[in-house]
Amino acid sequence: MSVPPTPTPPSRIARPTPFTPGGKRPISLAPVSASASSSAPPSRSTTPSLIPPSAKKYKAALTTEARPRTLSKPASPTKRDSSRPKTPTTPRRGAQSPAQIIISEMDVSRIDPEEALVDFETVEAGDVSLDLDDITQDYGQEDKVLVSIRIRPTDELHAWDTNGKDLKLNPAFGKAPQEFHFDEILTGSENKPVYNAVARSHVCAAMDGFNAVVFAYGQTASGKTFTLSGDEAQPGIIPRAMKDVFGYIKRTPTREYLLRCSYLEIYNETINDLLAPPHMSAAQPVQIHGNGANILLSPLREEVVTCLKGVHEVLARGEGNRRTASTDWNERSSRSHSVFRVVIESRERGTDGRQTPSGRTTPGFRPPTPGGARLQAIGGRSVQTSVLSLIDLAGSEKATSDKERTREGKYINTSLLTLGSVIGTLAENSSRGRADHVPFRNSKLTRMLQPSLSGDARISVICTMNPSKDAIAESTSTLLFAQRIKRVQLHAQKKEVVDTEALLQRYRKEIEELRRRLAEREAESPARSRRLSAREQLEESKAMRDLNARIRQLTKLILTSQTVDENKGDESRPGSPSKVDFDMTPYQLQQELLAARREIETQATQILSLEAALLARPVLPPDAPEGEKDRLLVEQAKTIRELEIVVQGYEDNLGAPLRKVQEDVEREWAGKVAAEAHGRAEKEAWADELVRQLERERKVRTKLEEERQALAAFVKKFDALGLAGPPLVSTRLNPPLPTPGGAAAVFAERQRSRLQAVVDAELGTVREFDSPMRVPVGVGEPSLLEEQWDALEDLSFDMEKIRASPMKGKENLPTWG
Ligand SMILES: Nc1ncnc2c1ncn2[C@@H]1O[C@H](COP(=O)(O)OP(=O)(O)OP(=O)(O)O)[C@@H](O)[C@H]1O
Fold it and tell me: Where are the transmembrane segments (predicted)?
């Protein structure tokens, strides 16, 4: 179904500007002041204002004077702030204006937060949104971005068909890439239904302690500012949100709130504080500090607001600074993003109203800590902190136009491109379970939004589009962006700071009480244990264990809290709401305590049983009556049975593993013993062999000795017969040393040779070689053989025989073997 051209009241469309593909908005002739021509189409700025007259418009219209300047001299990012042009039609309110001076006194660094608390009693009736009752605590799909499309009215033919929450290009205008489906598709000029559908639940989530972001994305002149800020007749999301904030406070009598607003714009990668005097903002642009989830903006002015009027003043001041800075606003509006932030801190109200039960007061003039916590968790009351960010992004058509991307590439706003790729990567990571690097740092916008886009916020995106056929490419690009961001996964958590001092005090008191109870029980324990049955004693022992465990656990918690407190360091140090996350809530502490107790109980049960059984061992007084003895015996038997069960439990749990260990050890030692035995057997065999060898050696030696003696006797006798050859070189005093493995054989050979020589000589066949046997007597060393002469008588006798029978003698020569 094609959306018919919406008949819009002329007063709502201050600039009924058909979209121009070139991104150049037709010069609006809409009057911006009372002096403007009455014949011009009525502007949204001409309608009665809810805000101070000095801030009738949330956005300056493009003036006829400004337009030529825009075309001839585009604003420079570096020069812009220091030379914000002042035109007669868009006078910048001076820093000295009384209104501004009054508002500046609401600068959070100059007031005591305790003095600026808002609660249901102090909220002004007129500041409250009356229809807040409509709202439920249902914030939609908490882990998904709420994505809505707002189609601005136009007199032209619509190129897009809508059907409920579906949207597709009318086939008459081309081939649609696909059919789109979103959470909401909104049309018309009424801002209230838009606010209710896309922002209200997120505002309430912020009041409830979650970070929340609502941003408008879309091509130039598609209605982002109209949606966010609106006009007097159709207040947009920001003023409606603030009304709901006060309405929420009115409806929550149990809590008190501190509200701080800041307003900034990102223009060509420079962040300007719109609440600071322009010269200061230009001299000191806002810087982003920190990493990841801990982002801090500084210096950034924050104004405490206690009523809607204060909010309007803050908004008007910010808009005033934008307007003054944006005489060339058409050019700038396509390149700058504005962010209105409200830091919401809340705490349970004390029982005695505004007074703090602990009597402590929050220091009044602390150094400014933009974004950080200001309210103190006092009297045991924790503080919840959240940030509501309402963002009007720059026009996106130049960055996303398919046909004109190349030609207009140099105008592409880097931050929007980066936003697109950041969203793309986040969507991919979410849907494919990946963890690809997300280029948050590539632009100020994405870096500033990093904590929220990373999931730590409830996010609602309203994509505005011009349904005209001239804007099909831009609209398609916007719809694709909207579709991608729908896939980003969120996981926002409430941020709470507990009053650690009060908590510690509570822990200490509890520990004291527990110790007292423990001491009492211990004191009466011997007497009691005699009275109690085994089971009661078991319970008593368990109770005491519990007390001890609880004391240990609380002591641990105190130590943990103190460590956390020390880590916090300087109180004045700025910290973002998410930074205080490490403070455990009482609920978390309770959970941890419970878990720890359960663990300790499980571990101690077995030991407890044994100890209790031991304690329960009945003492039998000698003078106890028989009946009493019997009873004790019965109890003892029962205890033994219980002990057996416990032991059986140990056996069941530990028996098998222990047996296994024992078997392993035994197996290991059996192996070692076998190896030892084997080694020993080998050594014994070796020793036996040695003994045998020694025995053989001894026999050989004996035989040798005998041979030697026989030979000596023979030689002596031979010498006596005058047949002496040369004396033997070796004597007893100088015997030939045995050569291992062959000395004996060599010696034997020598002896044999000698003997042979003797025999030969005896038989007349003496060889002519120079035998030692032929050494003349008296020339060589004294012969050992000579010394042994007497003992060799028998052999010489034998020699006689040999001489008598030469053949026989030869046969009888000694042999060695
Ligand atoms: N839904 C709407 N109903 C009535 N008027 C609208 C609607 N949307 C936009 N307009 C009008 O269209 C004009 C352009 O809108 P607006 O300034 O909000 O666009 P924008 O997206 O913020 O543009 P830019 O990106 O240039 O800032 C304004 O005069 C506004 O009043």
Answer: none
